[in-house]
Amino acid sequence: MGVTAVDELLPVLADALGVDRVEPLAVRPLSAGASRLTSVLDVDADGTVHRLVLQRERTTDRARIDVATEVRLLRAAHAAGVPVPMVVAAGPSYLVTSHVDGETIPRRILRDPALATARSRFAADCGRILAGIASMAVETVAPIPTTDPVDALEQMLDRVGTPRPGLEFALHWLRMNRPPHGRTGVVHGDFRNGNLIVGPDGVRAVLDWELAHLGDPREDLGWLCARVWRFGAPAAVGGMGTLADLLDAYAQHGGDRVDPAGLFWWQVLATLRWGAICLEQARVHLSAEFRSVELAVIGRRAAEMEYELMRMLA
């Protein structure tokens, strides 16, 4: 993040923080995301130090919502009791939020002795939070995309243009075994270990709402429970918790009662979706739309998802 880019935001931040002048103290890049550049920004606002998080768009992705929609989502989520960072300022290509202390790196969350209590309650925390997301009033976030997840996957695979028989087989299986549609609500779209800030007391904030849409809230449950987000740990929910704890908490806090066996279709969907996303990330790199070793490496993981889908559907 260049100094010039931060300097351009200083008058906006001064207005948002209600002060005459804001001085930048430090800018520290965070781990790169696929669509946004993220930095921690420390500023002095008339003698008070504020730690903020600045995100800037770096790609144009038709599957991702714009900043204005994300702002509406964050504010509606906060109103629904979902833990999220507070919006400080936003523009067409940037978003500034409050900084929430905690850990986001999954392997640390899975191993740090200081987070043992958080791990024990992770599944229940996620069930409660996902029930809150599903309860968000649609009218407070509209307009927001309405997405059929199977159609979206077919379109993504067609756009990539690389034949992958294992992924195509899974897509056919999903169409042939589709469960009845449940209620329509807000779907976060990327709710998983890695997009959650975790502290010793549990999950403190839900990040990365760029893939939010309207759909069946069970999609978020299946995505959270995909094997890829367990990061090598055995437990079904983010490598830390049980399906029973997740689904019980989800129902207790207003979500629909979901049968663990009925979640399997959504886990297959999640696995195929990550495989398609891996291919899309590789396409972005190979097409020179945005050159990135990270995107190229992610692309190689599509083969892992083909293997996992064959294991699941054997």
Automatic annotation (TrEMBL):
The cross-references to Pfam families, in alphabetical order and at most eight, read:
APH (PF01636)
Q: InterPro entries of this UniProt entry?
A: ACAD10_11_N (IPR041726), AGP_Transferase (IPR051678), Aminoglycoside_PTrfase (IPR002575), Kinase-like_dom_sf (IPR011009)
Under the heading SUPFAM superfamilies, the entry gives: Protein kinase-like (PK-like) (SSF56112)
Which parts of the sequence belong to the Aminoglycoside phosphotransferase domain? Answer: 27-245
Q: Domain of life, per the record? A: Bacteria
Q: What is this protein called?
A: Acyl-CoA dehydrogenase
Supply the source organism for this entry. Answer: Virgisporangium aurantiacum
